[in-house]
Amino acid sequence: MLINLSDKKKGEVIMKVVITIGGSIIIKEYNHQMFRDYANLLKELHKEHDIYVVVGGGKPARDYIKVARELDGGEANCDEIGISVTRINAKLLIMALGDDAYPVVPTNFNKAMEYATSNRIVVMGGSEPAHSTDAVGSILGEFVKADLIINLTSVDGLYDKDPNKYDDAKLYSEITASEMIDYLSDKDVKAGTYEFFDKTGAQMIKRSGIKTVIVNGNDPNNLLRAFNEDIGTHILPE
Ligand code: UTP
Q1: How many CB atoms lie within 10 A of CB 8?
Q2: Under 8 Å CB-to-CB from 235, ≥6 apart: which residues?
Q3: Is the CB of 154 within 6 Å of ligand 1?
């Protein structure tokens, strides 16, 4: 699974990479810093690879979804509110990337592929109701025939139990997509409640067979480490 960036030939794109960045990472604080830090790393990666980014909604999405739910908006409408927030976060990352990014957030996968013909980084948020941006990353990966999906989340990877509650929680270095689907089968699918990863995303990984790794995005440098080091949880497409 390890991919050595030094293997690249100068000027040659060696991989198509989909990178999903959890909203709880990029907009943990209401300031620009994480957008800047990630933009700098993405610009470096873009020199060698085709880069597609999917940005999550984080706390602002959950806050707005809470208000929508109090108004009895219905779950699909709550999802739409969440999607709108992911697109705001995507637009902020586009601003941080400047000319390296296509200036518009695609609202569907065909537009994402169309914008990619500009050879700029395409940054999207959500697509349609009933899943999270983890699934968007997996679906986009299938559309663009990605070589690798890197999912940046707020913990080190997938644990056997909640690492925020249990000191003895064990990190899986590898898990099959089928095991992950079982693991996620009893998890909530309501707007704003996708814990960790979503089942649609895992099903897509199983189907597409794309190499996927989940790493801790609180340290943006883990994005580069995911290429060169054996960190996080690798989801095997079985
Ligand atoms: P996120 O992908 O950010 O969900 O989308 P999340 O996993 O709950 O949050 P973080 O970012 O990891 O903390 C926010 C919400 O937007 C809706 C869902 O309701 C989701 O919980 N959403 C997002 C969709 O319905 N469809 C999408 O394609 C994306």
Answers
A1: 15
A2: 174, 175, 176, 177, 180, 202, 205, 212, 213, 214
A3: no
